[in-house]
Amino acid sequence: MDFTFTEDQLAFKEAIGRFLMVEAPPEMLREIWETDEGRSPELRRKMAEQGLTALSVPEEQGGLGMDDVAWSLLTQELGYYAIPDSMADTAYVAAGLLAALPEATPDRNALLERIAEGSIRIAVAHGISPLVADVHMADKVLVHYEGEVHLVSKEALACQRNTSIDSSRRLSRIQFQPDSSSRILGAEAGTSVWAETLNRGVLAVAGQSLGLAQRMLDLSVDYAVQRKQFGKPIGSFQAVKHKMADVAGAIEFAKPVLYRAAYALASGEARADLHVSHAKLACCKAAWLSARHGIQVHGAMGYTWEADLQMFMKRAWALNASWGTREFHQNRIADIVLSDGAPIGPQFTFGD
Amino acid sequence: MQLKYTDNQNAFRREVRAWLKENVPSKPLESYDTREGFEQHRAWEGKLYESRLSMVMWPEYLGGRGCDLIEWLIFEEEYYAAGAPMRVNQNGQLLLGPTLMEFGTEDQKRRFLPRMASSQDMWAQGWSEPDAGSDMAAIRSKAIRDGDEFVINGQKTWSTRAIYADWIFGLFRTDPNSKRHHGLSYLVVPLDSPGVSVRPIKALNGKDAFAEVFFDDVRIPLENCIGAEGQGWGVAMATAGFERGLLLRSPARFQETARRLVNLYRLYVAEHGESSSLRTAVLESWMGAEAYAQSAYHTVGLVNRGVKIGAESSINKVVWSELDLKMHETAMEILGAHGELSGDAPEAVDGGSWLEGFLFAQAGPIYAGTNEIQRNIVAERMLGLPRA
Q1: Alpha carbon B44 to chain centroid distance?
Q2: Beta strands B123-126; B167-173: pairing state
Q3: Do the strands A158-163 and A183-185 form a parallel or antiparallel pair, or are they unpaired?
Q4: Could you tell me the residue ranges of all domains in chain A?
Q5: B248 and B372 fall within a common domain
């Protein structure tokens, strides 16, 4: 029993953080927000060079074969820097789905290889979110249809773009006529593949939300130290301190829940859904609290376009309902916790 | 990251589970805030001690069994799941105990710790004074050296179960000219010493749950000082954090409350049907307790890797105390008109235990350092916000 990361894992997280800090500062985010496509091929290329797109791809297809636990660290960094790219959809969610397909599935290996080298964008239309992220740039879309997995080209879909308050989110409503030529997995096997895919999508959102929560807390603490009123930094006032402390508490207590969920998913635990939904709720809650207290601490500055806080807040607000609303996740938890003979209580922390 | 127990850990769990099954009293003990209940709990602690299950983490020669923190978590999980009696001597065992381990002389350890583990000696804490609550450095009680003794004068207050206890520990001003946290010493005093008088204070539950302790020329030997004379503040603070944060309230306690709350809600549903607001509150309670458990294992893992836990333990205290409140508020909501019934009422649910817990939960954000003080600690030491 060791609920910690190795030095290597932590060094990995730190290295990614340093890389993103340099490559995606807030000024650059603003520039990318203003573009039509909302994406920077240059940034994606650099991330691929760092090996980030290869993380989940099996070693046989040129990837690193890392698991959900590694992603629980990486997604926090993606959130912390509000990376305007749905890279996790391709490199984590889609890669995980493709890797779970039978080896002989046409295109499987080629797609995984392209993910690893960073030359493809794959959007995932699971159906849990009515609007799909990044279809406008996708080379391929993995579509859920009654349990089946379909692999579709963007051209084969009717797309309607929808604008989000978070300019880094590019959403589309898609319409799709399934046929046997696009089907790469039948419903029988597809159902469990999609269940796992859903959990990966959820976990990616949870990790990013937690990273956002931390970033907004850091921005707010910085601001509270610099901003003076009544001749003192506002951060010396208890009313401000206590808000920040509450955010720190929400973050500290969401972290282990996220890691627990990632571990459950990676090791195929029977109750992974429970932990994943819990992680989503805990991380999104921390992010919303950090946004609310963050804007309050920033005062009127927090309500401006100029202060960087807005970019992180908007992402946090948007992600809350992405890959399942609060109600959806609460229901998943209720299905287990409130069931007959539920394995809950102090003896079941790690399943029994 | 490896979230599986070892064979040894599983074996330990089975042993504890079997022992508790055999030994936990079938009839709940009286409240330990009464004389009768206090002695019943002392007897229970003695039984735990005989099987080396009172302080499992303490070294064997001091009455424990040398368990690590993971085994301690396992012990606690089994203990609360078995519905075993509340621990009556925690102020001694969890606040003074670790301090003695770190700062006590070998003689002091052997003299105090085994008797503390067995609860032959029951300990009350003596931090607060009438004018020194959250501002603990305002302590005025004096202990002045006279030959090979300290002579104590002053008053302590909010000392839990001090009218029943045998000893009190706390900070006293040994340098009469000192100010604030300088010149304080960490002393232990027998409550039957001449000059000590203890006046009970009735708590919210109507019982003598805490007391004022008056010292009038009370003489104690110099060897009752823990750590160096005049260094009491540092001694008290060094072990305050981690114990206060995690050991004092293990997650198992709240997981068990959450489990009972889920059951209470299920009974409610069977009678009245689903309520979306209650359901949300119950699920959030479960999640809160679960998050605390995950966090505890994470923290223990860090401690095992040699990481020093600092202000994070203040977050812990805020979280568990507010979680406890939330769970009991939810229970009161579910119980509706039956919530207010005391244990002896014919229609009381679960022997009035939810009401009892609800009352005690009100104290959580106050004792062991108020949550306001804890939030200040988090803001200043963890986040680096400036002092007022």
Answers
A1: 17
A2: parallel
A3: unpaired
A4: 189-348
A5: yes
Count of domains forming chain B: 3
* Inter-chain touch B375–A246, beta carbons under 8 Å: yes
Say which CATH number the domain at B192 has: 2.40.110.10
Which residue of the set B77, B243, B256, B312 is catalytic? Answer: B243
What top-level class would CATH report for the domain A189-348?
Answer: mainly alpha
What is the torsional sign of CA B115, B117, B120, B122? positive
Closest CA to A154 of A169, A138, A178: A138
HEC sequence for B83-95: CCCCCCCHHHHHH
Residue B211 is assigned to a structural domain of this protein: yes
Residue A339's pLDDT band (cuts 50, 70, 90): very high
Cβ within 8 Å, pair B302-A224: no
| Mean pLDDT for all residues in chain B | 95
Q: Which residues of chain B neighbour A240 with C-beta distances below 8 Å?
A: 385
Q: Is A114 on the interface with B (CB under 8 A)?
A: no
Q: Are A291 and A313 in contact (CB under 8 A)?
A: yes
Cα dist from B4 to A263, A271, A321, A348, whole Å:
11, 15, 33, 12
Residue B66 falls inside a structural domain: yes
For residue B109, tell me if it sits in a domain.
no
Shared-domain flag, residues B321 and B345: yes
Q: Are residues B136 and B186 in the same domain?
A: yes
- CATH number, domain containing residue B251: 1.20.140.10
User: Can you count the helices (H) and strands (E) in chain B?
Assistant: 13, 8
Nearest residue in chain B measured CA to CA from A285: B284
Place B368 in a pLDDT band, splitting at 50, 70 and 90. confident
pLDDT digits 0-9 by tens, A173-225: 999 888 899 999 999 999 999 999 999 999 999 999 999 999 999 999 999 99
Q: Are residues B252 and B367 in the same domain?
A: yes
Asked whether the predicted pLDDT for residue A122 surpasses 80, the reply is yes
Residues B2-17: tens digit of each pLDDT:
999 999 999 999 999 9
Per the domain annotation, does B164 fall within a domain? yes
Partner-chain contact A3 B297, CB within 8 Å: yes
Closest by Cβ to A344, choosing from B253, B262, B312: B262
Mind listing the pLDDT tens digit for each residue in B141-155? 999 999 999 999 999
Q: Which of B9, B256, B266 has the CB atom closest to A346's CB atom?
A: B256
Side-by-side strand order, sheet with A148-152: A122-125, A140-145, A148-152, A183-185
State which of B191, B212, B237 marks the end of a domain: B237
Examine the domain organization and report whether B249 and B312 are in the same domain: yes
- B333-347 mean pLDDT: 96
Is B223 an active-site residue? no
Residues listed for chain A: 352
* Structure tokens, A212: 């956002």
Quick one: B246 and B359 in the same domain?
Answer: yes
The answer to whether the Cβ–Cβ distance between B375 and A344 falls below 8 Å is no
Range of the domain at B194: 123-237
Q: Are residues B224 and B273 in the same domain?
A: no
Residue A167 has pLDDT above 70, yes or no: yes
Same domain flag for B265 and B207: no
What residues in B contact A2, CB-CB < 8 Å? 1-3, 301, 304
CA angle B81, B359, B265 (to 5 degrees): 50
**Average per-residue pLDDT in chain A?**
96
Q: With a cut of 60, say whether residue B244 has pLDDT above it.
A: no
Long-range contacts formed by A55-60: CB under 8 A, 24+ apart? A55/A91, A55/A92, A55/A95, A56/A91, A56/A92, A56/A95, A56/A96, A56/A99, A57/A91, A57/A95, A57/A99, A57/A112, A57/A113, A57/A115, A57/A116, A58/A99, A58/A112, A60/A109
**Which residues of chain B does A232 touch, with a Cβ-Cβ cutoff of 8 Å?**
386
